[in-house]
Specification:
- The protein has 34 helices and 34 strands.
- The protein is elongated and about 100 Å long.
- It has about 800 residues and is an alpha+beta fold.
- It has a 10-stranded mixed sheet, sandwiched between helices. It has a 6-stranded mixed sheet with strand order 1-2-3-4-5-6, sandwiched between helices. A 4-stranded antiparallel sheet has the order 18-30-26-28.
């Protein structure tokens, strides 16, 4: 029986990555032992052998130590499945399993472990105990990770010695060995004996090398977080347990191995002539505990890469660098003997400042830190690295990506995780354009599975970028992947992606995930990198063919006036009340972004607006002082020099420094009723201004393009006015269902809101209420919408139920099923 052949065949069929279960040459003469790795719940250990291993307790120990739910034994006639928390194996006929492989794999993915006694928690308990020994020895707490790694290294050496294995003995750092010797000797030996003899509450024997090899990423992640968030040493030298706190990705964070594996595989596919290279330099500028570098070794091993490999890692965390060195050196030792050794260079450094080498393959999960959370040094780093690409409030990860592209060799590839908001964030538009100018975008994935990251507070996206040797040869298609937050979506999508052959055209599209190709040329023209699946695109096309119109066809969406200095021109209610009555006539109620609450405009702000249809009313400074002396003295005069030096005033050679920069006379003074929207918002950010009394400052005015009065075809429906339709549209716009439509077109900005600029909104489809109202059934729905719009109650759940019901009916039930 050829065990490796069967393992490879199953891995290819299921779309799983194959890696040895044990270190090199640890397979016995009777079979082979591997792990088949999934992107989700479907990883399992596989032994193809003549022995009835399922009758032995050790296979449950192997699976538990590797953080795998199942061990599968395959003999000539039997397939036996051992789940580590179940006392007896499930035994199947091999022929039957081979005929129904998909059903068998579905069984594995749905047969979930019931026990909470995971190896990760057990090893984390060992870390806590080693940490307490560090405190007892009066060694600084930040050396706890080093002591823990030394302890794990000692366990691995002892385990190999007991099994008589002399191969791949890893030489540990002398400093780490000395650190272990500095701990209380009796306590260390007692703990080692406890682990070696299988004395644990879990009743499983720990195979330490398996834990490091297959569960190390999660173990090190939890240990590092434990170090950062647990209380300090108390007066009695006791390290208390970690407190349950929300931990953001703004600090130390680590990459799930399932996702790291896919990113490495997809990026390596884009490295030109990778198999022909004599050497390959791999760089992770934010290496954390080394998940990417670890998976790079595994993937290159699967590819049988024979060239020289240099692995370079940089991270600003001392603990992370220690863990990365430990994990990567163990992985390199597993792949031995090789004709050429693997060179490893992992150091403490800030990759935004330090000199980075040129690399052929760059992999990273950089820090996700929003602009508001950056200190001044980090902001200066972003300004220096991004230059003109930084427009607004970006994320620190943008600087890491740009630096990586700078250090990417021609013919090389970059695989990176970023906040999904960067795909649509307006402040990142110039940055996205620069990436497309300098590289080919090969893969773009938006992953809705928040469970991938234990501490994620944001949705994650994957990018694979290639720097071609010949810039005249550009990529024709971009592979796009979108997954929902359903339990199996990401795992199934990543398995399918692994099964796809390079250059193959494919479309896989269902409600849980979609894998498809986007023409590169059309993608380069998009201001946002919004991924819409073929199902969604088809649903939008059907909607437009059914009579829907775009917002740009129904409304002339106009940006609000620009004052050039809100501090001088915008007053709040207490300030306007304090002015003399004769001065108030030069002010108009203003719409700021916070003015629209619950679908209504609040009269909180007022703007100095000395204009009529002929233009500026107060033409000289003398007239200004006489007309509004109090306002002039308190608000305008202190800002005079700043107002005179506004770019618009200087560029237009204007003398009226007291005028606002752009007063938009064409629509601001037009009495036409209109819709008003926030500049940044979503459902709930729309209202009506039926008497056109407000001047929009931060936001947009939607001027209707249709005729003022509609006479319905049926006598049962009263004539509807522009005011009526505006109220109906506002109810629809404020519905949660319409928020789903907006998400397809509008980019996110800092804080999670949507940019409601016309450049994005104009293409959003709207049901044509004017035509729909001509039909008797449609007219009743429109009338109900009008009533909801005239009396918005967005704080009322019943209001939303009604608005969502009608909006769903107007767009079509199947439309929302598709998007």
């Amino acid at each position: 029986m050829n065990g490796d052949s069967l393992s490879q065949r199953w891995a290819g069929h299921f779309g799983l990555a194959l890696t040895p279960l044990f270190e090199t040459d640890s397979a016995d003469e009777n079979g082979s032992h591997n792990v088949l790795l999934d992107g989700g719940f479907g990883s399992f250990a596989l032994s193809v052998t003549k022995q009835q291993l399922w009758r032995e307790e050790k296979v449950a120990d192997w699976a538990w130590s590797s953080n795998l739910p199942h061990h599968v034994t395959v003999t000539d006639k039997i397939v036996a499945v051992t789940r580590w928390d179940r006392p007896h194996a499930e035994v199947f006929n091999r022929t039957s399993v081979e005929k129904q492989l998909e059903a068998f794999y579905t069984y594995l993915t749905t047969d979930r472990v019931r026990s909470s006694q995971r190896v990760v928690d057990y090893v984390l308990g060992l870390f806590r105990r080693v940490r307490s020994l560090v405190a007892e020895a009066k060694i600084p707490d930040d050396r706890s990770i080093d002591a823990f790694l030394a302890f794990l290294g000692r366990l691995i050496e002892l385990d190999k010695s007991q099994r008589g294995s002399e191969q791949n003995q890893t030489t540990f750092d002398v400093e780490l060995a000395e650190l272990l010797l500095a701990l209380p000797a009796n306590a260390v030996e007692s703990l080692i004996n406890e682990v070696a003899n299988g004395i644990s509450p879990q009743a499983f024997k720990l195979f330490p090398a398996l834990a490091v090899r297959h569960a190390g990423s999660e173990i090190f992640q939890e240990a590092h977080f434990e170090l950062l968030r647990a209380p300090g040493i108390d007066l009695f030298g006791y390290t208390g347990p970690a407190e349950a706190k929300a931990v953001t990705r703004g600090g130390a964070h680590f990459t799930p191995p399932a996702l790291a594996r896919t990113v490495v595989e997809q990026a390596l596919l884009q490295v030109e002539r990778v198999q022909e290279r004599d050497q390959l330099v791999v760089l992770d500028p934010a290496c954390g505990s080394g998940a990417f570098l670890h998976e790079a070794i595994r993937t290159l091993r699967r590819l049988n890469f024979s060239g020289e490999i240099t692995l370079i890692g940089r991270d600003s965390s001392r603990a992370a660098v220690s863990m990365a060195n430990f994990a990567v050196r163990h992985a390199a030792a597993d792949w031995s003997p090789r004709p050429r050794p693997i060179r490893i260079d992992i150091q403490i450094a800030d990759s935004l400042d330090a000199d980075l080498p040129v690399a052929d393959l760059i992999l990273m999960n950089p820090p996700f830190v929003a602009w508001a959370a950056l200190d001044e040094r980090q902001r200066d780093q972003m300004r220096q690295i991004l230059g003109t690409q930084l427009a607004g409030r970006g994320d620190l990860s943008m600087a890491f990506v740009t630096r990586a592209v700078d250090r990417l060799s021609p013919g090389g590839a970059l695989g990176v995780l970023v906040p999904a908001s960067l795909l649509t964030l307006q402040a990142a538009e110039a940055w996205r354009a620069d990436l497309l100018n300098r590289t080919d975008l090969c893969l773009l994935a938006a992953l809705g599975d928040y469970n991938l990251f234990a501490y994620a507070l944001v949705q994650v996206a994957v990018m694979v970028l290639a720097k071609p040797l010949d810039r005249n040869v550009r990529r024709r298609g971009i592979t796009a992947l979108v997954t929902t937050n359903s339990a199996d979506a990401t795992g199934n999508a990543l398995r399918t992606l692994r099964r796809c052959n390079p250059g193959e055209r494919y479309i896989y599209d269902n409600k849980a995930w979609a894998l498809f190709e986007i023409p590169a040329e059309s993608f380069r023209s998009r201001p946002v990198w919004r991924l819409t699946s073929p199902r969604t695109e088809a649903a939008l096309s059907r909607l437009m063919r059914a009579g829907a119109l775009s917002i740009g066809e129904l409304f002339d969406v106009r940006q609000g006036v620009r004052t050039g200095r809100n501090e001088a021109f915008i007053l709040e209610e207490p300030q306007i009340s304090a002015l003399p009555a004769h001065e108030k006539k030069y002010f108009r109620p203003a719409v700021m972004n916070e003015s629209i609450q619950g679908g209504k405009i609040q009269r909180r702000f007022w703007i100095f607006y000395p204009y009529d249809r002929e233009g500026l009313v107060l033409k000289t400074e003398d007239e200004l002082q006489k007309a509004v002396p109090s306002y002039y003295k308190k608000y305008l005069l202190p800002n005079k020099e700043i107002l005179k030096n506004r770019a618009n005033i200087i560029r237009s050679n204007r003398h009226d420094w007291w005028g606002i920069s752009e007063h938009r006379p064409r629509w601001a003074l037009d009495p036409t009723p209109r819709i008003v929207s926030k500049y940044f918002g979503s459902a709930g950010g729309f209202s009506v201004d039926l008497d056109a009394s407000f001047i929009v400052v931060q936001g947009f005015a939607w001027i209707p393009k249709w005729e003022r009065v509609l006479q319905p075809d049926t006598e049962d429906v009263a004539p509807l006015s522009t005011d009526d339709f505006l109220c109906g549209f506002v109810a629809l716009l404020n519905s949660q269902r319409f928020g789903q439509v907006l998400n397809l077109f509008c980019p996110h900005v800092a804080g999670g809101q949507l940019d409601l600029s016309p450049r994005y909104l104009n293409n959003v489809p709207l049901p044509n209420l004017i035509d729909i109202a001509r039909d008797e059934r449609g007219g009743r729905m429109v009338a109900e919408l009008i009533e909801l719009g005239r009396k918005p109650r967005l704080e009322d759940a019943d209001w939303h139920v009604s608005a969502n019901r009608i909006t769903t009916a107007l767009y079509g039930e199947d439309f929302f099923d598709q998007v």
